[in-house]
Write a structure and sequence with these properties.
single chain, alpha/beta, Rossmann fold, 2 domains
């Protein structure tokens, strides 16, 4: 790959093109609010990423948000972006967006329509999937058309360290290929964790995508994964297991599930603060919780992690916090995959992609 191209004056340091803006003062206020709110919390992640540059493959390499994120990485970071897409489309869209980056000059391209590694890729995919109903013809077709699967094969073959996908399409569709290709050697998707940065601080929500109706064991794994990832941000995890039931007052499926998960955490001597099962208001308001259970392990502090009994509740709370409470999202983080893949959602911004790229660019050894 050729040497990196630095800013030509057509972009800001965040990779955003300097197009005419109707209300420049309002734009600056919003940008400063965004950057300052996320900057402090993301600093440990960016610092860890700089210690060991990683090769990050982007499945939707033609998307303008990916191009802006790649431009920012090349200007500000040390990770190596690999974009999957058609070179002529990438070049045209980068120029239209006012970005100075060019394919095969500033970053590597994997062209699904014509790549020297195509045969190696489809044969590798067929070798993984031959006894799961994938014929050679299907493998060839997938390696021509499915950029998430192409990125997964690159990571599997050691040609990339991590994959970012999901800028369009259903999360579960991308997860299928991540599971098929990369869930090996003890790795498996544990849950999706999102951090929402609010004026009061960071609040994490899980599992918003992976296990729609998790077992107590899966809730346990999610809680343990949350604790590990929250520490990546230099924070002390305080985890609430949330349910319609509250400290044993209801004999409901979600209440029983969360109590069973609590038993697993206790029997396996979890080394972080957790409590449950409880309502969200009890998790976030120590005064409410003190009236219900003065001896709660969370003490007089609010929880900073909410783990729910199913994705319906988790995703609903996550979306309300993001859209109505002004929460600035980082994630979702795909836990349990050793940082080999992260699946974003179609609402992600270029700045959000830059944040998840920093997470993807951090070797697992750096966060315990």
């Amino acid at each position: 790959m050729a040497g990196r191209r630095r800013s030509s004056g057509r972009t800001t340091s965040s990779g955003v093109a300097t197009r005419p803006i109707a209300d420049l003062a309002d734009y600056r206020r919003k940008l400063e609010r965004h950057v300052f709110r996320s900057g402090d919390l993301m600093r440990p992640v960016f610092e860890a990423a700089r210690k060991s540059p990683q090769r990050v493959a982007y499945a939707e390499g033609e998307d303008e948000r990916v191009l802006r994120a790649a431009n920012a990485i090349l200007e500000e970071g040390d990770d190596v972006p690999i974009l999957i897409g058609r070179p002529e489309v990438i070049a045209r869209r980068a120029e239209r967006a006012g970005l100075p980056i060019r394919p095969e000059v500033d970053f590597e391209i994997v062209n699904p329509e014509s790549d020297a590694r195509y045969r190696d890729y489809w044969e590798t995919y067929h070798g993984l999937m031959a006894r799961r109903g994938v014929t050679p013809d299907i493998a060839r077709a997938i390696m021509r058309t499915n950029t998430t699967a192409i990125g997964g094969i690159m990571v599997h073959r050691g040609e990339a360290d991590s994959l970012i996908c999901g800028c369009f399409g259903q999360y579960s569709w991308h997860l299928k290929y991540v599971r098929e290709i990369l869930a090996r050697g003890g790795l498996h998707p544990v849950g999706a964790l999102s951090m929402l940065i609010q004026d009061q601080g960071a609040l994490f929500v899980a599992d918003t995508q992976v296990h729609h109706d998790p077992t107590p064991e899966e809730v346990y794994e999610t809680v343990v994964g949350c604790a590990r990832h929250v520490r990546r941000f230099g924070l002390t995890p305080r985890i609430a297991l949330c349910s319609h039931s509250q400290f044993g007052n209801l004999d409901t499926p979600s209440g029983r599930k969360m109590r069973d998960a609590m038993d697993l955490l206790a029997s396996r001597e979890a080394d972080f603060i957790y409590d449950g099962e409880m309502h969200v208001d009890a998790a976030l308001d120590p005064a409410v919780r003190a009236r219900l259970l003065p001896s709660s392990r969370l003490g007089d502090e609010a929880a900073n992690v909410l783990v729910f009994a199913g994705t319906d509740a988790a995703s609903a709370v996550h979306n309300v916090l993001k859209t109505r409470a002004g929460g600035l999202e980082v994630g979702p983080i795909l836990m349990g995959m050793g940082n080999k893949a992260h699946i974003v959602t179609p609402s992600i911004t270029a700045r959000g992609l830059l944040n998840i790229s920093a997470l993807a660019g951090t070797p697992v050894a750096h966060y315990g």
